[in-house]
Design a protein that fits this description.
Blueprint: H1 13-20, H2 24-32, E1 40-41, E2 47-48, H3 51-65, H4 70-77, H5 90-104, H6 108-121, H7 124-138, H8 144-169, E3 181-186, H9 193-204, E4 208-215, H10 220-227, E5 232-236, H11 243-255, E6 259-262, H12 264-268, E7 277-278, H13 281-290
Parallel strand pairs: 3-4, 3-5, 5-6, 6-7
Antiparallel strand pairs: 1-2
Length: 293
């Protein structure tokens, strides 16, 4: 019970967010809208959480991953494991259908609302895996309609991501020597949407992320690092490099250990640099979050 918890063992919402990788906005929504969490409060009204809350969030995430809508989670939390139903993907199929319908008619306001609603109620990783990854797979066929829909969805995701990054940085210094600071950008012919999910995930983990959403060239990375000395720079590039690009990538990585390259281009070119080359953005995220801040 919470009244038996030692006050010294409690921690603020930002720490709960960092430990569970759930955005603070989502944690508050789970509390206010759905009654899933009941934090203690300081005299000034600030939320305080315990280890029991960490376990409860992990249980909520487990249920959501199985397709339980957030509105039904509270009842499921009271059930024993033997009472729990099997995974139900109806929730995610409905989300995909909603986004498809809004994108097919190019209803910007409607698509913005659908995207924001799912991100408020569900963690970034859950939305990525269960909604947008399957959705973009459906839109992979190189047809004019699919390309236009994909671009429209990406544009709305970009707008949402930029708003979230701006809000997350509002109460942070521009760069912190005690935390992770990261500039994220990409090369040409590379889909931006996986990079957007990386930005959201890392921002939720209290990484100070700055996104450059226009494509740049490899030699620009050195210039960025000159101006952003407290930052790592991540360059995301899929596709195949020619010999000149491969050589330039090797030179850039050798010149500055705070430059990281993710994606298939470096892997296909067989570029090797310890802790600087990653085949997937998820690998880089796991590596970064294990590093001491």
């Amino acid at each position: 019970m919470k009244d038996a918890v030692n006050i010294d063992d409690l921690f603020p919402i930002r720490e709960l967010s960092a430990r569970t990788q759930v955005n603070t906005v989502t944690i508050r929504a789970w509390e206010r809208r759905y009654g899933l969490l009941t934090p203690m409060r300081t005299d000034k009204g600030h939320r305080l959480y315990s280890e029991d809350d960490v376990k409860k969030v992990e249980k909520i995430l487990s249920l959501i991953a199985r397709g339980v809508s957030v509105g039904k989670v509270k009842a499921m939390l009271k059930q024993t494991p033997s009472d729990e139903s099997k995974q139900d993907m109806t929730l995610w199929q409905h989300a995909i259908t909603q986004i498809q319908m809004a994108s097919q008619t190019y209803q910007s306001h409607q698509l913005e609302k659908v995207i924001a609603d799912y991100f408020v109620n569900y963690p970034v990783q859950v939305c990525h895996k269960n909604v947008f990854e399957p959705l973009f797979s459906l839109l992979q066929k190189e047809e004019a309609g699919n390309r236009a829909q994909r671009a429209f969805i990406e544009s709305e995701l970009l707008a949402y991501t930029l708003r979230r990054l701006k809000n997350s940085q509002a109460d942070k210094p521009k760069s912190s020597p005690d935390g992770h600071n990261l500039v994220v950008t990409l090369g040409d012919n590379t889909a931006i949407w996986p990079l957007l999910f990386l930005c959201l995930e890392l921002a939720d983990a209290n990484v100070n992320v700055q996104l450059i959403n226009q494509t740049i060239t490899l030699d620009s990375l050195i210039e960025i690092r000159k101006e952003k000395q407290a930052y790592q720079v991540l360059f995301y590039q899929d596709g195949v490099w020619g010999q000149e690009q491969k050589q330039l990538a090797q030179e850039v990585l050798a010149q500055d250990q705070n430059i990281v390259i993710c994606g298939t281009a470096a892997i296909i070119s067989q570029i090797v640099a310890q802790n600087q080359v990653f085949s997937a953005l998820s690998e880089f995220s796991q590596y970064l979050l294990k590093q001491p801040a």
